[in-house]
Amino acid sequence: MQPRTQSIDTIYKYIVAVLGGGLLLYFGKSLFVPMFMGLLIAMVMFPVCVRLERKGISKSIAITISLSVVVLLFLALIWLLFWQLSLFRQDLPFIADKLSAKLPELQRWLTDNWGLSYQIQQEWIDKLSGDIKNSAGAYIAGSFSATVSTLFSLFIIPIYAALFLYHRRVFVQFVKNIAGAARHAHIDKILSETTHTYFNYIKGMVMVYIIVGVLNSVGLLAFGIKHAILFGMLTAIMTIVPYVGIIISAMLPISVAFLTKDSLWYPLAVIGVFSFVQYLEANVIFPKVVGAQLNVSTWATLVAIIAGGIVWGVAGMVLFIPFVAILKIITDHLEEGKSINILLTRKD
Q1: What does the buried/exposed string (b/e) look like for 128-154 if buried means 16 or more CB atoms within 10 Å of the residue's CB?
Q2: Cβ(315)–Cβ(33) below 8 Å
Q3: What's the predicted TM-score (pTM) here?
Q4: Taking phi first (over 0 means left), then psi (-120 to 50 degrees means alpha), and beta for anything else, what does residue 313 get?
Q5: Would you tell me how many other CB atoms lie within 10 Å of the CB of residue 294?
Q6: Is the pLDDT reported for residue 28 higher than 60?
Q7: Confidence of residue 1 (pLDDT cuts 50, 70, 90)
Q8: How far is CA 290 from CA 136, 282, 286, in A?
Q9: What Cα–Cα distance (Å) separates residue 44 from each residue in 4, 64, 148, 192, 293?
Q10: Torsion of CA 139, 140, 141, 146, to 10 degrees
Q11: What is the CA radius of gyration of the chain?
C-alpha cells in the first residue's frame, strides 16, 4: 500500500502546484505578462547579443543594437498597418452606403426564410442601438484603460528584455541555486537548448508570417479586393493567436467583399484564398520553414491555448505555447519529469 500512497501524494502535489501556480499567474497578470514577453524577447535576441559581444562590442551596446532592431521592425509593421488603415478610412462612407443599400435586401431575406417580420427586426435594431448608447461610456472608459495599459506594456517590455540580457548570469545563477548543485549540468544543457530552439523557432515564424501575408495579399489583389495588403498582412499577423485569430481577422475582408462587390462569389473567393493559404501554411510553409523546432504534441498545444486564454486572455494564448515548449525541454533532461514529457512530446 505504501507505493500507492506515495503515488497519490505525488498526484496531490502536482494538483496543488498547478492550482497554486494558476492562481498566482491569474492574479499577477499585470506583472507577469510584460515580464515574460520581455523574457522571450531576451531569449530570441540572446544569440545576437553574444555574437556582437564576441566581435568586441560591449554588452550594453550589443543589447541596445539588438533591441533597436526589434523596435524598428515593430514600428515598421505598425506604420504599414496605419498607412493601410488611413486608406481604408477613406472608403468607409462608400462601405456605409453599400451597407445601407443591402440592409433592405437582408431584411427581406430574413422575412422570407426565417419568418421574422419587419417590426421584430426593427425592435432588435432599436434595442441594439439603445444598448450601444447605454454602454458607450463604459466602452470608451474601457478602451482608454486598455490603451494606457498597452502603451505601458510596450514601454516596459523592452526594459525587461534589456535587464534579462544584461543580468543574464545573475538569473542563471539564481536558477542553478534553486535547482541544486546536482542539476547544474542539466541546467546548462536546458538553457542552451531552450535558447537555441526558441531563437530558430521565432526566426522561422517571422518568415512564415511574411510569406503568408504576401500570399494573402496577392490572392486578394487577384480578385480586386480593396486594401488587400492591409487585410492580407493583418490576417497573417492574427495567426499568432492560434485557430481563433484567422477566423476573427478574416471576417473584415469577407464583409468588405460582400459590401463592395455585386456578386456573392467574391466573399466566397476571399474565403477560398484564406483557406488555401492556411492549408499551404499548415502543410507546406510551416513544416519547411520552421520544421519541428518545438516538437510539442497537438494535445499539449491545444491545452496551452485554452489555459492561456483563461488565465491571461489573448496574451496567454500567445505565451503559453512557448511555456509548454520550455517545459517539454526541461522534462527531456530530468528523470522525474518523464511522465509529463510523454504528454508533451509530439508522436509522428
Answers
A1: eeeeeeeeeeeeeeeeeeeeeeeeebe
A2: yes
A3: 0.70
A4: left
A5: 22
A6: yes
A7: very low
A8: 44, 11, 5
A9: 43, 14, 27, 12, 14
A10: 90
A11: 25
Q: Quick check: 257 and 267 in contact, CB under 8 A?
A: yes
Closest to 327 measured CA to CA, from 313, 307, 312: 307
Statement: residue 14 has pLDDT above 80: no
3-state SS class at 3: helix
Q: Which amino acid is at 296?
A: V
Cβ contact 53:59 at 8 Å: yes
Residue 197 CB partners (closer than 8 Å, separation 6+): 293, 294, 325, 329
Place of cell 505565451: 319
Dist. CA 338–CA 334, nearest whole Å: 7
CA distance 227 to 113: 33
Q: What's at 207, amino acid-wise?
A: M
Q: Would you list the domain boundaries of the chain?
A: 25-109+117-128+139-166
Question: Distance between CA atoms of 347 and 45, rounded to whole angstroms?
Answer: 30
What is the rounded CA–CA span in Å between residue 190 and residue 168? 15
Cα 318 off chain centre by? 4
| Interacting residues of 184 by C-beta distance below 8 A, sequence separation 6+ | 176
Report residue 266 CA to chain centroid gap: 29
What is the spatial distance between Cα 19 and Cα 27, in angstroms, rounded to a whole number? 12
Candidates 277, 266, 271, 279; CA nearest to 223 is 266
How many residues are present in the chain?
348
Cell digits of residue 4: 500507492
Ordered DSSP codes for 103-172: HHHHHHHHHHHH---HHHHHHHHHHHHHHHHHTHHHHHHHHHHHHHHHHHHHHHHHHHHHHHHHTHHHHH
Tell the residue number behind the cell numbers 506594456, with chain if given. 153
Residue type, 198: Y
pLDDT tens by residue, 105-164: 777 776 777 776 767 767 776 776 666 556 655 545 554 455 556 666 778 888 999 999
Closest by CA to 316, choosing from 6, 18, 34, 52, is 34
